[in-house]
Write a structure and sequence with these properties.
This protein is α/β, with parallel strands linked by helices. The protein is built from 8 helices and 11 strands. The protein starts with 8 loop residues before the first strand and ends with a helix. The structure holds adenosine-5'-diphosphate and guanosine-5'-monophosphate. The site of adenosine-5'-diphosphate has 14 residues, from helix 1 and helix 5.
Length: 221
């Protein structure tokens, strides 16, 4: 048979082979800048979709339900856990956060990569489930003083919430060895360039290229 069961090339990017989607995880202590990097990445990468988590924490000023998070109460969160609707979930800052699985399946089926802003517990669980598809990037702040300054200048959290986030930061940083890449977000453009480079290289990994066998067959026929 001459016809390939599946196209070899990626319709959205004909210079590349069809490939498995990348599950791209960004973690950092709160305030180090991962949402800033995530926003820039989404604006710059049409093939990347954002995983929108569900959380029981209150909405911050400026956040939009369904865009930043699905804000749910504890009862609804528990129902979602019981109904196995989460790919992973964890307790963070006394609240619950989880990744609804349906949106991930939809994005991957549509040929997209998926960006996750989740903590080390989420990265660990996702890696258990999806192993080789997962790329884990940890972002360090340049210093704890600068982290405090960013949390304060963001102006979205009360002083006691900022204290709690600072208290947790050292613990989060201690999980750096559960990540594939680490970056320091000192200059935001430099950090963003690093993240873009990682994504570009990971997309090109041979192990993700599902169109490769068909191409080699044709090439060597
Ligand atoms: P996170 O998502 O990790 O909690 P944010 O992206 O909300 O952090 O960033 C926290 C604050 O720090 C925001 O006000 C953001 O504009 C600012 N910020 C992010 N990156 C930098 C940087 N490289 N230099 C200075 N300020 C930054
Ligand atoms: P924030 O309250 O600042 O938005 O997020 C607090 C922390 O929860 C961040 O470290 C963020 O990455 C993490 N987080 C957000 N959503 C999820 C999720 O779905 N799962 C897990 N495990 N962590 C999450």
């Amino acid at each position: 048979m001459d016809a390939d069961p599946e196209p070899i090339r990626d319709a959205a990017d004909p210079h590349h082979f069809r490939r498995r989607g990348v599950l791209f995880v960004l973690s950092s202590p709160s305030g180090a800048g991962k949402s800033t990097i995530a926003r820039k990445l989404l604006a710059d990468e049409p093939e990347l979709g954002m995983s929108v988590s569900a959380t029981t924490r209150p909405m911050r000023p400026g956040e939009i339900d369904g865009r930043d998070y699905h804000f749910v109460d504890l009862e609804e969160f528990r129902r979602m856990v019981a109904d196995d609707e989460f790919l992973e979930w964890a307790h963070v800052f006394g609240q619950r956060y989880g990744t609804p699985r349906a949106q991930i399946e939809t994005m991957l089926a549509a040929g997209k990569d998926v960006l996750f802003d989740i903590d080390w517990q989420g990265a660990q669980q996702l890696f258990q489930i999806a192993g080789g598809d997962v790329v884990r990037v940890f972002i360090f702040p340049p210093s704890m003083e600068e982290l405090h300054r960013r949390l304060t200048s963001r102006g979205t959290d009360a002083a006691e919430v900022i204290d709690a986030r600072m208290a947790r930061a050292a613990n989060e940083v201690s999980h750096w060895d559960g990540y594939d890449y680490v970056l320091v977000n000192d200059d935001v453009d430099a950090c963003f360039a690093g993240v873009k480079t990682i994504l570009a290289a990971e997309r090109l990994k041979r192990s993700r290229q599902t169109g490769l066998i068909g191409f080699i067959r044709k090439l060597t026929r």
